[in-house]
Amino acid sequence: MPSVRSKAALSLAQTEPGGVLPITEIRGMPEARLKTGMEEFDRALGGGIVARSLILLGGDPGIGKSTLLMQALGALARLNERVLYISGEESPEQLKLRADRLGILADNFLVLAENRFETVLSHIDESQCSVVVVDSVQSIFSPSLDSAAGSVSQIRHVTAGILDVVKRGAAACFLVGHVTKDGVLAGPKVLEHMVDTVLSFEGERSHPYRILRASKNRFGSSSEIGVFEMGDRGLQEVANPSELFLSERPEGVSGSAVTALVEGTRPILAEIQALVTGPAPGQGRRTCLGVDSQRLALMIAVLEKKLGLALADQDIFLNAVGGVRASEPAADLAVAGALLSSFMDRVAGSRTVLFGEVGLAGEARRVSNAEGRIAEAARLGFTRIIAPKANVEAAAPGRGLKLVAITHIKELASLLFQEES
């Protein structure tokens, strides 16, 4: 049996790099976060920027990645933080034009137009900045490699070098990453494993609203979102996404239902719209925007089997309005409600919110954070909640809401079109 190490040996091991230690002997490191003052940006990061962290930000061309990061650095500069923006794609004059448009004027906001890897590394190491942005990782190249900038070997080499400098220093670093035509980050998948946080900036360029979504975060929730609106002077924070997503909801039309989603710690109300039209020759077409196509297929199958609806030859279009992503099972009841409303061409209750998972047997299953969902519905003036029985029974009374329990999808048709109190 191996001998137990003495305290003196443990003390010696603590001074040696790579020494093996019991976890109880390791001194914890305080998690100091640097807040930009942009609450939606800080929220997506889990509460702020963690020192010596490497953060990857991806998004479609022209979506506003550079604008977002320049605004974040500008906010930090106004808080007397020293920041550095490194661009491998734009000249200093182009960066100044954007800074003037965004109203960023600070002597401690430094810019560098450079795409040579070794030069970029030396400036990150010597700049003594709190936060550094490298825009973009695909534009930086090392002459020591034969491959072109943006190749797999170059991206891996550049990211590994920046990661090493960041972990040895004190600055946090944002890497801007291009995306492919399929919307995934370009370059090797290992790039996402090397960084601490992966953020995606989502939205349509023709649409003013943008969503900053965390898909990986070693220092916080990986499901938080920040919501922004693009304007003439850059991105503006949207403090109340629920009102935004419901602001243009039509009244008195079929095929519309409101659900309560949870993104990270934030409950958000969103509209689900369905259009069921047909019959079409052969198998009906299925189109989804913002909703998982597999969950739509599941809801169609359950409605056909348990309610006897003939949907196989119908063209079905489903949309989560406003760019929100209704990916959690809690949206199942609202998806089913929107489909029912459109198929029957009857208007669902305009002040009703539906949430709950639907199983393959048609049963309504409880979901998490029901209290937060109900509170958000009450805050926005909704009067009725249709939710699984387990969630309704556990909910606190009051708030001026009528809570309607549902145990099976068969009950939805009669409840959905009842008058609201």
Short recap of the structure:
The chain is α/β, with parallel strands linked by helices and 421 residues long. It has 13 helices and 20 strands. It has helices at residues 7-14, 39-44, 65-78, 92-102, 117-126, 152-168, 190-194, 241-246, 293-307, 332-344, 370-379, 389-394, 412-416; strands at 33-34, 49-50, 54-59, 83-87, 109-113, 131-135, 172-177, 197-202, 209-217, 225-231, 234-237, 256-263, 266-277, 286-289, 315-320, 352-354, 357-358, 364-365, 384-388, 402-406.
The backbone outline, from C-alpha atoms, is: elongated
Indicate the percent of residues in helices.
Answer: 25-40%
Give the CATH architecture of the largest domain.
Answer: 3-Layer(aba) Sandwich
Mean pLDDT, all residues? 90
The DSSP helix count reads 13
CATH class descriptor of the largest domain:
Alpha Beta
The tally of domains stands at 2
Structure description:
The chain has helices at residues 7-14, 39-44, 65-78, 92-102, 117-126, 152-168, 190-194, 241-246, 293-307, 332-344, 370-379, 389-394, 412-416; strands spanning 33-34, 49-50, 54-59, 83-87, 109-113, 131-135, 172-177, 197-202, 209-217, 225-231, 234-237, 256-263, 266-277, 286-289, 315-320, 352-354, 357-358, 364-365, 384-388, 402-406. The protein has 421 residues and is α/β, with parallel strands linked by helices. The chain is elongated, with a radius of gyration of 26 Å. It folds into two domains: 26-239, 3-Layer(aba) Sandwich (Rossmann fold); 244-416, 2-Layer Sandwich (Ribosomal Protein S5, domain 2), CATH 3.30.230.10. Helix 5 (117-126) packs parallel to helix 6 (152-168) and helix 9 (293-307) crosses helix 10. Helix content is 30%, strand content 25%.
